[in-house]
Amino acid sequence: AHENTGLQSQLPLEEQNYGATATHVRHGPVVSVSRKGPAKRVYLIAAVLCYGNLIIFMDWFIVPGILLDIQKYFELSDGDTGLLQTVFILCYMLAAPIFGYLGDRYNRKIILGAGIFFWSGVTLGSSFISELYYWIFFLSRGLVGIGTASYSTIAPTIIADLFEEGKRTTMLSIFYIFIPVGSGLGYILAAGMTDITGDWHWAFRITPCMGGLALVLLVLLVPHRTQRRTAVHRALSISGTIRVAAEKPGVHETAKTTWCQDVVSLAKNWSFVWSSLGLTAMAFVTGALGMWVPLFLYRAQVVQGIVKPCLQESCNSSNSLIFGGITIGTGILGVIAGAEAARRLRKINNKADPLICATSMFISTLCLYIALMVAQTNILSTFIFIAFGELFLSMNWAVVTDILLYVVTPRRQSTAIALQILVSHLLGDAGSPYLIGTISNAIQAKSAPSFQWSFWSMQYSFFLCAFVGVFGGGFFLLTSFYIEEDRKEAEQ
User: Fold this and answer.
1) Could you tell me which of 332, 364, 400, 339 has the C-alpha nearest to residue 180?
2) Which residues, at least 6 apart from 18, have a Cβ–Cβ distance to it below 8 Å?
3) What is the model's pLDDT at position 33?
4) Residue 211's domain spans which residues?
5) Are both 200 and 327 inside the same structural domain?
6) Which family does the record claim for this protein (predicted)?
7) Whole-model pTM?
8) The pLDDT of residue 462
9) Beta carbons of 392 and 385 less than 8 angstroms apart
């Protein structure tokens, strides 16, 4: 029997046919989705997406976790070593807009599955590359970046569509907790597998297996089509039923705007622009720290006489293990603290989100500057201030994404996330690892080779991160000037 379509007539034309995820039926009944029945399934889908985010960032930070071994194996300078991560990020960011376009128009489950399969296979293959073909290793990291982009662009939009606004922030916070958790586990996995096997190549053979499990779970649990949720859909869901209307001639063209129109619209959204630049500063600092901190700590310990120089034998991985633990702990606490602060302060200040981001960015920058200053004399204090710097930096991840989701209309969210990824990585962590390494090389070239100068060169290079961090705080302050107006416009 055909279902009553009374509520269907209340939907605006654009809401009846939203993007590629709306049901495309010329004739026939509308689709009814009960809110009560699939509640557990919705959380299982979110859990699968969080698991995928975990292993992607584990894979992302395997290279920094064994950077000393890779640098020695391929005989790379600081500049060339930094370029290794830059290649990964460049391919990641250039692929993101493509997947953003596809995610707004085509089946998101298929795109996610293809991305997981691709990067898992390439990562596994990279573990068999010999020292004679370092350029293939560089290429493989770039290809992994392409596969990763499909996931990071689309997965947050599915979570946003699954939950109402109240739960959306909580679920996005949980999703983004797995960024620092995965990053920290990447360091630990890399260092642990190298210590156990005596061969750093084994670090690249674990995450592909985890990726295979993620692919199976994605196929089994995530529905073939994931419904876009707009303001009208949310209102209808209160009554217990969401009805997706059948497509009518001429409507689909109205909903599917061109990519260029989306970009122009987003460029006029100042909250999106300034918050994206703030995120760019965060990415710059995070990329540099994630790539170089274990090596910087090693050089500081060599200068202080705490450890012996790593010349022939397998390098000590204790710094990667400790930094990985710090990344996990501060990441979890930071994301939770940021989300909770946003939840409480929104009740008294509509500009709370960008102000939280600005404040935490300034404090993080100060902590990182102090860490650099004390590194040569007190390694324990260096660890402590790096931990606080990462803690305040992590407070912003979920909040920045939530800003995007409520200042950008639903049909442009995948494109907006893709553009934000493009800009933040192009001007942020795509260049910062290479830039820090290049500056370090230039400083070392001005003096005779020594362990003291190798430490100073890295220390002086890192001061650039403090400078960029101050700008990031300023960008978030500018976001607060436009946030209320842009949010109202997106809701309308």
Assistant:
1) 332
2) 228, 230, 255, 410, 411
3) 40
4) 38-227
5) no
6) Belongs to the major facilitator superfamily. Spinster (TC 2.A.1.49) family.
7) 0.72
8) 93
9) no
